[in-house]
Amino acid sequence: MPAKEEMPDTIKRSPKHAQDIWSKAHDSAVDSYGEGERAHRTAYSALKHEYEKVGDHWEAKDESGPSDKGSKDRSGRTEGGVDANASKDHLYDVAQRLDISGRSNMNKDELVEAIKKANARETREARKD
Q: What's the whole-number mean pLDDT along residues 1-24?
């Protein structure tokens, strides 16, 4: 099935460039691995090099590269699109945009977890519309 028909809503709400990255990577992965979860994981991996999830959509990162340990050590452990390799200041700014309370007292790992939860909550809310 073409990527445009399988594209997740969070990506549909994102810039066209993000949609293009996901679509091209997905279609290439389908050609290599067939339909299914592996094609989706490959497409998300490509997207996460350039974009991070903020709320219910994806936004361009300041620098290209892996977003979390799972993409480096192949453990599969990810941070749900949060750029866990970003600076604490960047994570604080994202938390502020998402109106996460208590952010000024959080360390970097706590900011990552709070952003993941806020992203999931906003995505659930967006699906209701």
A: 88
